[in-house]
Write a structure and sequence with these properties.
It contains 4 helices and 5 strands. The chain is an alpha/beta fold.
């Protein structure tokens, strides 16, 4: 099941690091799914299809998690994770979105709101 998740996703480069993400596009508004600690976007695998009936979807593995790069010499701050997320939304050309988050994803959401 996790290999299916990986194979249905993509990567984009952020500061030379590969960041894994998965999307399901439709004509609906976008729902961004943010994972917690110490997991990955795979947290949403069991609800992905049901959520996709109502929203376009986007999820990513924060740097250091899941299928994203895990550089040894990296600070892994909340600010870095929010930067990666903003780069992803730019890469996907997402202008407006809803957020579904839990655990560490809530912290990233708070940083985005503060910006």
């Amino acid at each position: 099941m996790i290999e299916d998740w990986k194979n249905s996703g993509n990567y984009f480069s952020w500061k030379g690091y590969d960041i894994f993400y998965k999307t399901a596009e439709s004509e609906n508004e976008t729902l961004l799914c943010l994972h917690g600690f110490p997991t990955s976007s795979h947290d949403y695998c069991k609800v992905w299809d049901a959520l996709g009936e109502r929203f376009s979807l986007a999820a990513f593995d924060m740097i250091g998690y899941g299928f994203s790069a895990k550089p040894a010499d990296f600070s892994y701050t909340t600010f870095d994770q929010a930067d990666v997320l903003q780069a992803l939304t730019d890469h996907l050309k997402i202008k407006n979105l809803h957020i579904l988050a839990h655990d560490y994803g809530n912290t990233i959401t708070q940083e985005l709101l503060a910006r």
